[in-house]
Amino acid sequence: MDILGAIAIGTEPYKRDTAEAASKSNRISRRDKIMLPEMWRQVLVQALYQMLVMIFLMYFGEFVFFDDSFNLITTPLRDGDGNPTNRMVLDTMCFHCFILMNMFNQINCRVIDGKELNVFKTLFNNPMFWIVFIGEMVVQQLMINASNSTLGSALLGTAPMSVNLQITCWAIGAFSLVVNVILKQIPIENFSFTRHIDLESENSDEFINKYMAKAEAGYKNKMDSIMKAGE
């Protein structure tokens, strides 16, 4: 889903010849980190919100939104007549919520100021963003509406959703804007640990690279043992 954030920020117009941009004290060195604590706060809190929503929907959604409970693993996606079951409807709801949360988070990503609460202050300075944004929203909704036909449901793997479920999905997605306001109230000092995260260098001693190297080595050893057992 990183492409959504790239669209949100990458198409922002460049501020030309402003006093702030021209000031040497505000120039950014090529050695400076791209990911700042303010950005990590945005990423981590929004990711936490999305994970909580998805976990709740997957494990408790059947009790909240459906009259009849079902098994997340053994219940088939379609019944004997080929009609979507409630499990497939829940899967579609999870998919719709996840995409909408990321779509609305694009708006949050357009304003990366650590203290600015109004994400709509640059609402009309980038027409390209809104063209892409509206286009993505239309495609997403068409994917859901297409499930009303047997062919569309079969091709896209989605199930028809009631109006109430769709409104719920849109509300959950739009709540990402509220989460953005809440996370700006968290002191940035609580994310000072992110200064030790370096995603831009090849330093093997950096803890993420260190654990990734261990994971890759473990995976390679496991695959080697499987291949030897197969021989």
TrEMBL record:
GO terms for cellular component: endomembrane system; plasma membrane. GO terms for molecular function: metal ion binding; P-type calcium transporter activity. The keyword Metal-binding applies. Residues 1-186 form the Cation-transporting P-type ATPase C-terminal domain. It holds the Pfam family Cation_ATPase_C. It is a multi-pass membrane protein. The chain crosses the membrane at residues 43-66, 86-104, 124-143, 163-183. It is found in: Endomembrane system. Keywords: Magnesium, Membrane, Metal-binding, Transmembrane, Transmembrane helix. Its main location: membrane. The keyword Chaperone does not apply. InterPro entries: ATPase_P-typ_cation-transptr_C (IPR006068), ATPase_P-typ_TM_dom_sf (IPR023298). PANTHER family: CALCIUM-TRANSPORTING ATPASE, CATION TRANSPORTING ATPASE. This is Cation-transporting P-type ATPase C-terminal domain-containing protein. The lineage of its organism: Eukaryota, Sar, Alveolata, Ciliophora, Intramacronucleata.
